[in-house]
Queue: 4 jobs
Job 1
Amino acid sequence: MKLGICTDVFGRIPFTEMLDRVVSYGLDAIELTAGGWGGCFFIPSAEELIRDETKRNAFKAEIDKRGLAISALNCSGNPLVNAPMGRAHSKTMHDTVELAGLLGVDTIVCMSGLPEGAPGDTTPNWLTSTVSWPEYDGFNYMVEAEKYQWKKAAQWWTEFCRFAKKNGVKKIAIEEFPGALVYNVRTFRKLCEVVGPDSDVLGLNLDPSHMMVMGADPIAAARALGDKIFYVHGKDARIERGIADVDGLPETLPVTESAKRTWNYVAVGCGKDLKWWKEFFSVVHMMGYDGYVSLEMEDLTMSVEAGLQTSIDSLKMTISR
């Protein structure tokens, strides 16, 4: 495995300065956000790079001359909701695929999206309780909402998978994100089922932090996924003792209120210990994955620099090279 980084953590600094910082950390690759919810600090316009070959070549040359690779383009967002955001994110995901093909990048990282609960709605609706109840006068709105959402997902994702193949993208790595239609192994398999034969291009971006905060075991999930691990985020989370014990894992407080939250994203090694991370990467490698591990640093309990250095040191000591 090789170690890379999601570059949004560097904020709004010049592109070449960001690349030099990545090299200074001894990393192998960069994951760039090209649309969706990401900062898109270093690809402000995928459309522009698609249209302008000269700019695209110059952009790629700066990366190449530093010996770095683009591990993936990230366009995580919600393309499924019937709202301006959904339409914008759908377009940017298609643009990202087209740009990836032109840059020779075979992997994109994204999220499944989340539809509204019924035709005419405009707000995403995440169903997290049993659909067995409530029912009124023979009608169960949760069952109907679930059917509607998966039907919408099947239509959009079937077209998108075909578009990705047409543009040379071999791997769509879906991040199992809380609040998305695909948030665990079971819902990922459901998406593959509703898409059908074109789902061969679908895999999971295994982000262990999201599974931790939902109470799942990322190591067990890696075993269950097998060769459907298409990408890995190096990201840790900590269940906050004394708070989660009282209030449970569901958390709606802003991420900036870390001292009050039941869980937080933290630097690698500040949630799970290094023995755990060694086992995680060992199992991931045993399942056949030998690609990039991309550090996504979102720890607000320490400085950015401290979080970066802590995470990089931990990952260098634990990934299966």
Job 2
Amino acid sequence: MVDETQKPVKMTVKELVAHFEGFLVECERKQKQTYGTYQRALREFIKWFPVDKRFRFTTRDVERYKRHLVEKKGLQNVSVGTYMTALRRFCQYLIDIGVLKVNPAKTVVGGRRPSRHSREFLTYQEVEDLLECVDRDSTQGRRDFAIICMMLYCSLSEHECLHADVGDVRARSDGSRLIYVMGKGKTSKDQGVIISKEAEIALDEYLESRYREEEHNPAAPLFPSLSNRTKGSRMTSRGMREAVNRWLKASGVKRGRDRRLTPFSLRHTSGVMMVDKGATLEEVMTRMRIEWRPTAQIYFKLRGSLGTIAPKPKKKNL
């Protein structure tokens, strides 16, 4: 007897395109970047579907499409993973509207994940050199220092820093503070991150300077642009990267590693420092908002190598 849940589903190109458009409408509630990624990735599937002529939404069909991406399109592992994720989400949408009963892409693994991060990490000495280099006599310098500390000591990503507002920083009953962040692909700030003492000192110093002559506005960007042309507006990704890169270069820690040592390296360094302090795998996943275990395990693999590069410095006040 045939399992009805595994029964192939035949669909015309016209029907597929209609479902694709319906899926995009559902995706409009997601981040603009996520919407664009799914739209671009699924366009390849829409083009391939009438050429293949055999796709019936089975696991074997999905595996054949994956081979097409690798062998015919020549896509790298990361890109294949993105395309497969988009197809998996599209199939889930088809389940939600009653077209499919099971997701044929659920068990098909995307591109092979990297065994290590593409960005390099800072040693403890490099972290110290970077922090000491930042000029904190100006509001801009204090802002940049606060961004660096939030990345290093709270594991905030560039995306989370960009979308943070002043009102997202909230006090807890025990006297500590949290910052509520919007993770990548999320539409709401539903994850609270504990602000470490090091980051809290840097953040307070910056906010005191910034709001000395301004009214406190909870809806204002936590890290706004301070240039004459865009002053007060939310920083762009490019602006934040340039701000952090400026100090990475000035401190001398770049040392010709322009492509591999970037602002993203600060968050990765945070993960290794966390492991070095004895954090468990589950704690690293929670505090860094990591959902895939092998990603967090990379930090544990790097723990030994980091310790041989430079000793952990004595604790010092910022």
Job 3
Amino acid sequence: MLEVRDLHAAYGESMVLQGASLRVGAGQVATVLGRNGVGKTTLIRAVAGLMPARRGSVLFKGEDVTGLPAHEIARRGVGLVPQGRRVFPSLDVREHLVVGERPGNGRGWNLARVLTLFPRLSERLGHRAGKLSGGEQAMLAGGRALVGNPDVLLMDEPSEGLAPLLVRELARVIAELRAAGTAILLVEQNLAFALRVADHVYLMSKGRIVHECSAEELKGSRELKGKYLGI
């Protein structure tokens, strides 16, 4: 479904991604883990088309989408829950969820269903996103991605700012998306959450994927956790 091949990306002269490669199949949840500053968010941004690749390629359903603008990649069925939420402060909650809606491919996510998932957003429909709390913005960013009914969902620290009850609900939603065939690429600082929802793990260091394994293998490996995660 999604394949990243030898991807390089930089901020100015600072080369952050230095040949990252991974694959995520339909109905698979893959998580990218690593210490702060190793390039995880840059990887998500480069796959989504938010920053240019210096070298390498991104394939979606076999099509090379490297270099396409972000809106074209989204239109093909790649959804994004970005780090820091990235909501539009001047748009209200309803506008965010209506503008992002895309017909469902049988997945059935729409405004009403998102409001059922996040009842707090029902109470805030007419409120501008810039006036929401951090947790409410997290719900809105997740809902905005879901109404797009993506075939691939990129999630950059989606549990940040969510109460424990909503983190558990997020895990349930990810399981539902996986069962419906959505491929999910997850970056997450909450290790327990990441390992609970993921099938496969990619460990990142210095802009490269340096190890891959099942979530179960990482759970039981103190050596890998110590070497690549510092725990």
Job 4
Amino acid sequence: MELNCLELFLNTLNGINVNAFVLKKDKSNLELIDNRFRTLLYEDFVYTDAFDLLERKIKENSLMRKTDEFLFSYMFLRVPEEYLSEGDSSCLSIGPFSERRRNREEIYHIMQKKEIPEHLFNDIAAFYDAVPVVENALSFENVVRQFATGLFGREYHLEYLPEDCVLFLGSNKILRTVKENPQMAKDTIAERYHVENELMEAIAAGDYDRAHDLHGKFVTYHIRPRTKNPLRNKQHLAIVLNTLCRKAVEAGGVHPLYIDDLSTKFAVLINEVSSLSDVNTLSSEMIHKYCLLVKNHAMKGYSAVTKEIISYIDFHYTEDLNLNYFAGMFNMSKTYLSNLFKKETGVTLTDFIHQVRMRKAITLINSSALPITAIATACGYNDINYFIRVFKRTYGLSPKQYQKSIMFSTH
């Protein structure tokens, strides 16, 4: 339980694209403090000075904030001993993050000040693009402080490391220590495509939790902006995500007709959003809906007969469908077809037909004011009492009770 509190804290921050981890006592993961920025930039860079500084300066009940010479921000706090695993130090690192996206002129000025050769500009700029932006730093600090206080049972107070505390002393080395070709851009691109492939695999499997976590990592690999309009750039990234989701669910065995329907809906919604937060919400919803699409309509691994039956039911659910009908369609015995379908899908053919019709019924109740009798007919049930029995067996409520609960929840 205690370890879960720490995992929840780390996973929550990582989920909003901010790097967070516990430093190891053996100092084996210190380069993660700045996402390996100085390891990539400088020859033989070591982080020992940073670790020693944090051990001296981070107080038990303080959330310490520091901005380095590259204008990257960090926060540090001490985790109570009971939440740590063997080998962990008590210091937890959060960052780097930036209060705003740095433009090319600002990055170039920082490079000049640090005496970094101009030919490394693209590499340095690529790293700046990959660092997550926290638009309201003060609000973010307070949320992190309150979250840590609630989870770890310790009242944290926000403090700032003094100006004379240099977090990365090694960064002050002379020019010759800068690598000739750090290849940050190349490494960042390779890592982004690796995470992208894992994200598509998770969506193809309908694994929303994993897909959500991987999307959190994916958006940290910032694609270079196409325009000066932040909203348009966010919309562009959402369009990229929609395309990736399309490809993923197709690989997961979903029929193209379903994919096209959902993809078109999200394309319209992406174009209509009016704020950055709306784009973030829409992206999360997109992953959720595509994963549901896989769970509800994936046919990977099914035989040709089962695939055809499932597709037919999905598009002809209002017709009089039953085992006899499909046995005649495929010229098979009812017993063989019934056993084949249940073996591959895990449910009987009759139950599967009901499942499809019930999903349609719920959609109609949620999105229309049609009477129950009309909904029953629209879902392929000519006997209203039979429809009510199947609905109640499926959802635990009668259609009328469900309809009333929806009306009550919206008032």
